[in-house]
Structure formats: C-alpha cells, structure tokens
Amino acid sequence: MPHVVLDKKLNLFDFSILFKPLFQKSPLIKIHKMYVDSEGTNALFSTIVIDDSHHEFFIQVMTNDDRTTIRLLPITDPQKTDAVKQSLANLGLEIQRHYPDMKVIKSNLWDYLKIPIPNE
C-alpha cells in the first residue's frame, strides 16, 4: 500500500484551517475536502484523479505522538496508478510546505516526492 510517514505529530485541527484544495492539471489530481475526526487523530481528504480512468477515493492521514502517516483509505482502495500515488505525495508535500520541520522518515513513494531519501 502506498504511504508517506512524517516524523512528527500533525495538529489536524490547525492544518484544517490552513488547508486549501490542491489541484494538478495533468494528470488531473484534485484533493478538495478535508474531514477531521473529533479527537484530531484522523483526517480524510476527498480526492479525484483522472488519468487513463476516473478514480474517486479518500486519502487518510493518521497522527499520533511521534509520527504522521498518509495512506489510501483501505475501504476506498483505488487502482494504484502513478497519478493516485502522486496524489499521496502531493498531500505530503503540502503538509511539509506548511510545516517545514516535518521530515519524511519512511515511504514507498520517493520517486513521487522528489526529495532525497534519508539514510535508513
């Protein structure tokens, strides 16, 4: 399953105030709504991707005391095309844009993140 793991807790309530819909033209990627649970530990991002086919799914962001994980919500499980993987990377990069001190510590999407792979 494609994923990005960041090294710190993300305050999802704060990020929900900063979040603006993300749009990429080609291939079409639109991450347009954010829903946060009442405890602030999980968020869902409504996502549409149009490449060779049309995909509608949710990206899940889970956060705890020492990390934040970005992944596909298993129940919506789209086909893992390059554009679907890029949507996860785009959200991770957007989080890092607002919180530059958060670093990617684990991922299987390095080619999509276009950032150096840390020494593991």
Would you kindly provide a written description of the structure presented here, covering whatever features stand out?
The two termini are 20 Å apart. A seven-stranded antiparallel beta sheet has the order 2-3-4-5-6-1-7. It is α+β, with helices and mostly antiparallel strands and 120 residues long. The protein is built from three helices and seven strands; from the N terminus they run βαβββββαβα.
Strand content: 35-45%
Radius of gyration: 13 Å
Number of helices: 3
The number of distinct β-strands equals 7
Q: In this structure, how is the largest beta sheet organized?
A: 7 strands, antiparallel
* Helix-strand category: alpha+beta
Helical content class:
10-25%
How many discrete structural domains? 1
Question: H/E series, N to C?
Answer: EHEEEEEHEH
Distance between the termini: 20 Å
- Please give the order of strands in the largest beta sheet: 2-3-4-5-6-1-7
Shape: globular
Summed up, what is this model?
The protein has 120 residues and is α+β, with helices and mostly antiparallel strands. The chain is built from three helices and seven strands; from the N terminus they run E-H-E-E-E-E-E-H-E-H.
